[in-house]
């Protein structure tokens, strides 16, 4: 479904991503791990069109998407979240959902395409907020949400656009254990509904619980790939994580 092949990204003389190839099959939940500076978010930026790659190709459903703007890539059904959630802090949670659903409709034709009655969009926004545990916060200012709640809001907003593949950037960062279990269950539930996931996170426990396959990066390069249980036991991966925590 998604394949990044021999992707590189350079900033001046620094290779943030160095000849990396990853693939995500339809219906999979695939993880991308690595310590700070490994190149994970840089690779995300290239795949999603926010940063032009220096080399390599990215295909989605067999079509080249590298070099295309993020709005066009989103129109194909590939969306992403960010490490630091974006939004309008002086608007309510529900207003943020509605604003972003209309913005996404310009790129993505579907249930929320231009012309969809406001009542239906409003109903679906509330359904999504309820699913992500935010229904009780619908009329609260976004600036009053906690960091984990902001992540859930961004996740729910992305789902309003009905993505076929959703790239999650650090969804478990700052999330308590109880919410992490809920997040894991939610991702699996959405996968069962037909959404494919590529997930970046530092939390190995979370990644190994939710992902079937993992790609591991270090210093811009791919150092391991395969089934989750194998990759988290990889000596190089263990050395990097233990070393970074020391």
TrEMBL record:
Keyword ATP-binding listed? The answer is yes
Organism superkingdom: Bacteria
Which Gene Ontology cellular-component terms appear in the entry? Answer: plasma membrane
Q: Which InterPro entries match?
A: ABC_AA/LPS_Transport (IPR051120), ABC_transporter-like_ATP-bd (IPR003439), BCA_ABC_TP_C (IPR032823), P-loop_NTPase (IPR027417)
Q: Name one GO molecular function term.
A: ATP hydrolysis activity
Q: Which UniProt keywords apply?
A: ATP-binding, Nucleotide-binding, Transport
Q: Which PROSITE patterns match?
A: ABC_TRANSPORTER_2 (PS50893)
- The record places domain ABC transporter at 2-244
Q: Which Pfam families match?
A: ABC_tran, BCA_ABC_TP_C
What's the protein name? ABC transporter ATP-binding protein
From the broadest rank down, the organism's phylogenetic lineage runs: Bacteria, Pseudomonadati, Pseudomonadota, Alphaproteobacteria, Rhodobacterales
């Amino acid at each position: 479904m998604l394949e990044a092949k021999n992707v590189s990204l350079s900033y001046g003389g620094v290779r943030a991503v160095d000849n990396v190839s990853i693939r995500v099959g339809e219906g999979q939940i695939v993880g991308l791990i690595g310590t700070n500076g490994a190149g994970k978010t840089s690779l995300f930026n290239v795949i999603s069109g926010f940063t032009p790659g220096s080399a390599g190709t990215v295909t989605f459903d067999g079509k080249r998407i590298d070099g295309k703007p993020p709005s066009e890539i989103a129109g194909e059904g590939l969306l992403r979240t960010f490490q630091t959630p974006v939004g309008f802090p002086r608007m309510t949670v529900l207003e943020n959902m509605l604003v972003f659903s209309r913005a996404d409709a310009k790129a993505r034709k579907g249930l929320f395409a231009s012309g969809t009655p406001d009542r239906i969009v409003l109903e679906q926004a509330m359904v999504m907020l309820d699913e992500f545990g935010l229904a009780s916060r619908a009329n609260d200012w976004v600036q009053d949400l906690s960091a984990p709640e902001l992540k859930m809001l961004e996740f729910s907003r992305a789902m309003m656009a009905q993505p076929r593949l959703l790239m999650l950037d650090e969804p478990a960062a700052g999330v308590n254990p109880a919410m992490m279990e809920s997040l894991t269950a939610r991702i699996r539930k959405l996968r069962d509904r037909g959404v494919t996931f590529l997930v970046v996170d530092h939390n190995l426990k979370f990644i190994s619980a939710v992902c079937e396959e993992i790609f591991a990066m270090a210093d811009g390069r791919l150092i391991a790939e395969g089934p989750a249980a194998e990759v988290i036991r990889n000596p190089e991966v263990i050395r990097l994580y233990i070393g970074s925590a020391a």
